[in-house]
């Protein structure tokens, strides 16, 4: 199967030059970049940092003077060029790099024509542009993806974990009703179709499998190079949570741990945790039901728990 051909169009007015290498490397995972154009006013001092990157990365600058105050001529030129490239039939996809919502309609129009549209922008990029793309990638993730920053959750524009975990559960249940196992790769594809800006790097992970494992709700099995995912047996999942709570208490030794602090640990680890699933109405009652621990009040009348 031949690689898809992409047109890379960069809005220099809204993107920092420091991302250029990361942009090109990321786009190479989707196909071949046949057009590389960047739009801006190259007479402006703001474009100075970009100038040194253009020749080195073989990106063609397109000059657009800012003749009218309050009008973004760069946006118009990029949009016109995108439509011209579309009608040549020389590409199968576009990568639009901008943090501006003005390209939302362009992304939608390109997708209507059967194009794959990869959007890239900074965290501030409005959600309207994100969801108009086939896939959207936060540029900050590309710069920091080698850093181990697990659980650095969730920025304002990032989809909540609970939403993602619920979606995964529904996908698994759909296939379970059809008597089929679910491949993790297929789940990942479905999530991107549902949420174009879903990316495990938004949550500090480098692998979908690690993101899923930390939910505590799913069972992963590997057969050769294929990973399948299923819902954990409820009894198995409950036993795992009890063990986690007991271990957390024992690690604190005789000083114990506050009930509210322990509760936060459990809910952060198991986002779907609900004490009612264990037959209790309160978290403190659930903790009391664990063998080998005792509940007490400190001198400030705050509830704490420690090992016996």
Explained architecture:
The chain is an alpha/beta fold. It is 40% helix and 20% strand. It has 12 helices and 12 strands. It has helices spanning 20-27, 48-56, 73-88, 104-112, 127-132, 139-144, 161-177, 184-194, 208-213, 234-251, 259-269, 283-288, and strands spanning 4-11, 31-40, 60-63, 93-97, 116-121, 135-138, 182-183, 218-223, 226-231, 257-258, 293-297, 303-307. The strands form 3 sheets. The chain has a 6-stranded parallel β-sheet, with helices on both faces. Strands 7-9-8 form a 3-stranded antiparallel β-sheet. β2 (31-40), α2 (48-56) and β3 form a beta-alpha-beta unit. The longest helix has 18 residues, at 234-251. The chain is elongated. The chain starts with a strand and ends with a strand.
């Amino acid at each position: 199967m031949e690689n898809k051909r992409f047109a890379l169009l960069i809005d220099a007015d809204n993107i920092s030059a420091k991302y250029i290498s990361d942009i090109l490397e990321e786009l190479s995972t989707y196909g071949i970049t046949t057009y590389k154009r960047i739009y801006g006013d190259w007479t402006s001092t703001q474009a100075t940092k970009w100038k040194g990157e253009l020749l080195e990365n073989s990106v063609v600058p397109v000059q657009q003077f800012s003749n009218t105050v309050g009008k973004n001529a760069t946006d118009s030129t990029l949009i016109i060029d995108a439509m011209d490239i579309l009608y040549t039939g020389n590409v199968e996809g576009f990568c639009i790099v901008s943090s501006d919502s003005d390209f939302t309609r362009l992304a939608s129009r390109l997708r209507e024509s059967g194009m794959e549209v990869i959007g890239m922008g900074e965290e501030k990029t409005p959600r309207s542009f994100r969801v108009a793309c086939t896939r959207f990638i936060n540029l900050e993730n590309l710069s920091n993806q080698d850093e181990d920053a697990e659980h650095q959750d969730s920025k304002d524009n990032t989809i909540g974990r609970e939403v993602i975990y619920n979606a995964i559960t529904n996908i698994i249940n759909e296939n379970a009703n059809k008597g089929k196992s679910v491949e993790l790769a297929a789940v990942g594809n479905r999530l991107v179709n549902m949420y174009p800006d879903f990316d495990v790097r938004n949550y500090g992970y480098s692998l979908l499998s690690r993101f899923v494992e930390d939910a505590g709700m799913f069972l992963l099995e590997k057969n050769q190079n294929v990973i399948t995912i299923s819902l954990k047996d409820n009894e198995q999942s409950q036993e795992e949570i009890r063990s986690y709570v007991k271990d957390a208490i024992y690690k604190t030794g005789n000083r114990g741990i506050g009930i509210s602090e322990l509760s936060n640990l459990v809910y952060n680890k198991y986002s779907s945790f609900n004490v009612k699933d264990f037959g209790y109405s309160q978290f403190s009652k659930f903790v009391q039901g664990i063998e080998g621990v005792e509940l007490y009040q400190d001198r400030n009348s705050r509830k704490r728990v420690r090992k016996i």
